[in-house]
Amino acid sequence: MHGEEQKWVDEAIRTNWVSTVGANINAIEEQIAEYVGCKYAVALSAGTAALHLATKLAGEKLYGQAKPNAGTLQSHKVFCSDVTFDASINPVAYEDGEAVFIDTEYDTWNMCPEALGKAFEMYPDVKLVIVAHLYGTPGKMQQIKEICDKHGALIVEDAAESLGAKYKLNGKWVETGTLGNFNAISFNGNKIITGSSGGMFLTNSKEDAEKVRKWSTQSREAAPWYQHEEIGYNYRMSNIVAGIVRGQLPYLDEHIAQKKAIYERYAKGLADLPVKMNPWDRENSQPNFWLSCLIIDKEAMAPQVRGEQNYLYKHESGKSSPQEILEAMAAINAEGRPIWKPMHMQPIYRTNAFITKEGNGRGKSNAYIAGTGIDVGADIFQRGLCLPSDNKMTAEQQDKIIEGIHKCFL
Ligand SMILES: *Cc1c(COP(=O)(O)O)cnc(C)c1O
């Protein structure tokens, strides 16, 4: 927090605009649209709400309006990022579709275009792809968009983690959050800027913006009474939350610079170890460096196995494992995280199809065999971890973490 957040929250209370309408909402919708370079931004209660309405709208455009008690995806398959937070892809289930997970690539840790191409060979009727930019690093959107265009498929872009990250599309720099047909960002408490909660739907289509705004405010029709022709949601952002976002927005670029400095300090401090930082395309992207991560070289991985809720690891000289490093950090009161566990390994999605660049990632039995490292997502989950990345972290605190990681490899 910087202080200006308080000013706009106080203003909302002083003027009695304590509701889902008010000056803060109007201001941030305008300011975000200008920052990312889109025509319309619709402020919602969460990034998840933005992703839900984006996915619902995509379904309605592709398959027509659903019956009041059914989702718009109507059992159709949707290709989805696999290493992401489940909020990216749960809306497929909310709308009665079926997620098909696409494996990850090693260059940016995002959706693998080759695997996506393979998926279209296997399921040529699919018309929707949900793509996330993991940890603030843009994925290979040029290739992904070309594949989608070739198959007439639409894109829902999940830019929840990547607000302020830039990507070179057709030789022109653009912001993430403008790369899909339907786009979502988040102001959750852990994101690059926050409103405590909140999110936005971003679009260049006036009609889409109006539709999402209507759905988010209970789908009221223009009648003197509560008149409803379609199912509605209570998904609009509060003017109090919008006040916090309004106070944070002037600091977005500063937060990105701080996060980048943290990333670079780790990269330098860990350069002598058998690890790499989370990679990005230095020619065609500029991440927001939301989370710094590392991945241990294959040869330097000590044994580590994970069950559903617990794990075991063994130390070996000159080697380490993510769980060993996370414990060492916890011992000095520093919070790291495992890599987001891939969706195809999650109990709720374990029977969904999963496509690698070789084809069916489940094999003939459609079973995932934990720890075999047969796919890229599982491999990054096995060898990678998220480092403490808070922009308030001091250089001294970061040096302690770097020192602690070195001890793990003794
Ligand atoms: C945080 C996050 C979301 C959800 O945003 P909320 O505002 O928390 O609902 C969706 N997708 C990704 C990739 C996220 O990191």
Automatic annotation (TrEMBL):
Keyword Cell membrane included in the entry's annotation: no
Catalytic center residues: 191
GO BP field: polysaccharide biosynthetic process
Residues bearing PTM N6-(pyridoxal phosphate)lysine: 191
SUPFAM superfamilies: PLP-dependent transferases
GO molecular function: pyridoxal phosphate binding; transaminase activity
Keyword annotations of the record: Aminotransferase, Pyridoxal phosphate, Transferase
Family recorded in the similarity comment: Belongs to the DegT/DnrJ/EryC1 family.
Full protein name: Aminotransferase DegT
Species of origin: Selenomonas montiformis
Lineage of producing organism: Bacteria, Bacillati, Bacillota, Negativicutes, Selenomonadales
